[in-house]
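Morning. Coffee machine broken again, so started the prediction first thing and wrote up yesterday's gels while waiting. Chain of 216 residues, entered below exactly as on the submission form.
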Amino acid sequence: MKFAVYAAIMAILGVSLSFGGVTPKRGVQTADGQASVSPAQAAKIKQMKDILFKLVRQDEYLDEAIETLDTANHKFTAHDISALSLSLKLIKENMDNASALNKAQFAELQPGLNLSSCTKAILSYSAKMNAKVLRVGLLTRNLSAKNKKAAMRDAVSAKKGGPDDSARGRKVRGKSITRLLDEQQALKQLSFEVKNLKASSARLTAISKWLYIVSK
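Came back before lunch.
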């Protein structure tokens, strides 16, 4: 991940890049006038920073998925589609992990920790990712529609040759039909992964919202 992204996250969470210390908005003043925090607050900020780092990484993976799906005139093979399905499945699993970490924070939050800036950043990224997941869903539907149209066109072309075609011609058409079937099966799996991803993303956003509300 680029240093600028890390710097932005640390700025949001109030983490010093120079010394790695925590600098909250409000805190106890030490003898030298520097702000200090309790061990409990420092531990919580570190945990939430780790959650945010996970979300930023998934956000980048979603950008890659959108870029792949939104590439004009790109002809997807079954292998391409299957690779994309695996990527979305991994994003979904990491979102579920982030949701579980967020949920665990509810019971551990204590009054006076001043963590709203952390939880607000987590909510912001969760909502941002949810919008991108919806974009992935739209692009997937477009890809499925395009593939279905191509399959119908190729099926008609195959029928026009008739039974007198050469063995070579039948072999070529056989490959085409097999390829189309493989692509359709891959797209079916992709749609399944997108559906699961949407559910996980919505759940993550909802939990992040409640975590922010509780932390204020």
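Strands lie at 28-29, 35-36. Going to sketch it on the whiteboard this afternoon.
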